[in-house]
Design brief:
- It is a single chain.
- By secondary structure, the chain is mostly helical.
- The chain has 2 domains: 20-142, Tetratricopeptide repeat domain (Serine Threonine Protein Phosphatase 5, Tetratricopeptide repeat), CATH 1.25.40; 164-193.
- Helix content is 70%, strand content 0%.
Amino acid sequence: MKYLGFLLLGILTCTISFSQEENKEIETGNNFYRRQQYDKAETEYRKVLESSPGNRIVKFNLANALIKQNKTADADKLLTELSTKENTTDIRPKATYNQGVLLTQQKKLEESIEAYKETLRIDPNDKEARENLQKALLELKKKTPPKKEDDKKKKKDQQKQPPKPKISPKEAQQQLKLLEQKEKEVQQRLQKNSSKTGNAQPKDW
């Protein structure tokens, strides 16, 4: 399956005043990221985290750089930390959104749907999260219908089975023959009785 419509939110720029060295390293990392040199961007972001381990913007950007390098386990750890431990509304919805994209790429549709829903709980106006949620739900429906149809067919077959006659065709034929013989015997008896009573006079009442 292709997930071209599920776009990762890009890196964040510095909106908080850090030290000049940190700002330079963050900007250097961002420039490497924009040039698609994700390994170098990762190195710069990690330098910042050594001196400032609580830097949320750098953690978010580092997670994106890791995703681009298919280092999904490390990226997921960072995004989980940002989406659960951080109470600020600026980073948290972005982190949960990117978690959804990451899970979608891993074909974990049900988990990605929950991530998009969580994003919308935090930020109901997030259009991209809403669109991705709809896309993920459609992808999930494409996967599940065959199983449901098979179950329905099985149920229908099971329902059709009980009405089937318990008597086999051979047994039915035998029973018909027996009935025919009984009818013949009854007719023969009636004929004999009628011949015996044929001379009798009707009773006067």
